[in-house]
Design brief:
Shape: globular
Strand content: 5-15%
Number of helices: 13
Largest sheet: 7 strands, parallel
Distance between the termini: 34 Å
Number of strands: 7
Helix content: 40-55%
């Protein structure tokens, strides 16, 4: 216990090694190590909770997320800002391993003493982030970073979970992807605060301008959101080789964050996000408890054996076992409700 308090003290003082250790424990799948991580978070919470600006970045592979963060983060550290980057890498569905290569692509930012880059495996979690990303974000906030960028796995349209743990959500798209059918896709488009068309320079400049215009027009099809000032959401062109465009993007992010703080939307957004996170956490725990229930596990094993034997879940035997398993599940949950 003393070690957890000491680690928490070092994290709050900005010690990188202690922060890395705390994150490793928070991400661990080992129950004892995970419990240590929880105790460190508890110790940090007792000392008062710091808050940082959280920015989510998503987009398809190759759109330039790491390049943009490398250059933008470097410019921010030159201004004396402390920048943390949480780069979520996809995990192999076969081995569970991840390349974790984002750190190597941020060669300029990583050299700054004011920057902290932490690659993390998605480990099968959907939505572009890992299950422990919220705890890792909290740890970075308590370490005193001014802003925390969460870079998602790069799947694209499905990466909406990052919006549930960040204050500003930026969608990156490539030039030439702005035709009308692509631009009006809902889902991720509806929750994005800013749409940045990357690589908007050189031979791609005209294509980027057309793409930006297409997205700008598509955004007008969506109704206004009460969390936004006039002109948000918006689409804009950026280039990792053009510092001016990156700082314009950053100015829009800062102005939006300031407006939401002054309007009260910032606090309400965070409350809503954390309430939804708690409900999701409880659902995951409930599912885990059900999966480990011996009575239900036995029924599931029998059902799977019947499916293997008959080759389909729609065979009479499989249907009968399925109904019996569902009945047992209802019985278990009803007993829990009565308690």
């Amino acid at each position: 216990m003393h070690d957890c308090f000491e680690t928490a003290r070092k994290v709050r003082s900005g010690n990188r090694r202690a922060l890395s250790r705390a994150i490793t424990l928070a991400e661990s799948s080992h129950p004892a190590k995970r419990a240590q991580g929880e105790r460190i978070i508890d110790a940090l919470a007792q000392s008062g909770i710091r808050e940082s600006l959280r920015i989510g970045l998503t987009g398809p592979p190759g759109v330039g997320k790491s390049s943009l963060l490398n250059r933008l983060g470097s410019e921010l550290t030159k201004q004396g800002k402390r920048v943390a980057v949480l780069a979520i890498d996809p995990s192999s569905p076969r081995t569970g391993g991840s390349i974790l290569g984002d750190k190597t692509r941020m060669d300029s930012l990583i050299q700054s003493d004011l920057a902290f880059i932490r690659p993390s495996p998605a480990a099968g979690a959907l939505g572009g982030v890992a299950e422990s990303t919220r705890e890792v974000t909290f740890l970075c906030e308590q370490a005193g970073f001014d802003m925390i960028f969460v870079e998602t796995t790069g799947v694209g349209q499905s990466e909406v979970e990052v919006a549930e743990l960040t204050d500003i959500f930026v969608l990156l798209v490539s030039p030439g992807s702005g035709d009308e059918l692509q631009a009006v896709k809902r889902g991720i488009m509806e929750i994005a605060d800013l749409i940045a068309i990357t690589k908007s320079d050189g031979d791609l400049r005209q294509a980027a301008e057309r793409t930006c215009a297409a997205y700008h027009g598509a955004l007008r099809l969506f109704g206004p959101r009460k969390i936004d000032p006039d002109g948000i959401p918006c689409a804009m062109n950026v280039s990792s080789t053009d510092v001016g465009s990156l700082m314009t993007l950053w100015q829009v992010i800062e102005d939006l964050a300031c407006w939401r703080q002054e309007s009260g939307n910032w606090r309400q957004m965070r409350i809503d996000q954390e309430q939804r996170w708690v409900r999701s956490l409880l659902r995951r725990q409930l599912l885990s408890n059900l999966e480990s229930c011996s009575g239900l596990t036995g029924s599931t094993v029998q059902l799977e054996a019947v499916i293997r034997k008959t080759g389909t879940v729609f065979s009479p035997d499989a249907r009968a076992h399925l109904r019996a398993t569902l009945a047992k599940l209802n019985q278990i949950t009803a007993t829990g409700n009565n308690d």
